[in-house]
Write a structure and sequence with these properties.
Distance between the termini: 29 Å
Largest sheet: 7 strands, mixed
Oligomer: single chain
Helix content: 25-40%
Length: 158
């Protein structure tokens, strides 16, 4: 059975224009809406991270996320090099409720599998725990603050 084409798609961001779109979504959501200081939002890990972008049929950016892997992820995964670190997941206000966030998580997991990773960790804002739990992530460890907001560590084995 074929239906209407998806109103958006996800892809790995290789081109400068895609990376710029990823950073703009993060600026709108984290810096603009959540008041995260820009110097905390962007870091040196962006240069080596794998970035994923969700775009509408017209090419406009709807969401983004990144995957840290290897040595870049080790500080967030307890030093386990077989675990990637999903982060900076952001969906534009207009695109929320369309499944974009879940599609981005699945796209990042596909990229992690392609890198041979066994699991993905993330630091979830506590209000988003249910979202990640529905996608198969399990919380572990105590709550901790990040950029002034409460977070929990979560993991999903791939």
């Amino acid at each position: 059975m074929t239906g209407a084409p998806a109103p958006y798609s996800t892809r790995r961001a290789f081109e400068e224009t895609d990376l710029a779109a990823c950073f703009q979504v993060r600026k709108d959501v984290f810096v603009g809406e959540q008041q995260v200081p820009e110097d905390l939002e962007y870091d040196s890990l962006d240069a080596t991270a794998l970035h994923v972008l969700a775009v509408a049929a017209d090419g406009s950016a709807l969401g983004t996320g990144r995957l840290l892997h290897g040595a870049a992820a080790a500080g967030r995964t307890g030093g386990d090099l077989t675990v990637g670190s999903l982060g900076r997941l952001a969906v534009t206000r207009a695109a929320r409720g369309l499944g974009v966030g879940a599609a981005l998580v699945r796209a990042i997991e596909d990229e992690a599998r392609g890198l041979g990773l066994a699991a993905v960790d993330l630091h979830a804002q506590t209000h988003a725990l249910g979202f990640y739990e529905r996608l198969g992530y399990v919380a572990y460890g105590p709550e901790f603050p990040d950029a002034g907001m409460p977070h929990r560590s979560m993991r999903r084995v791939l």
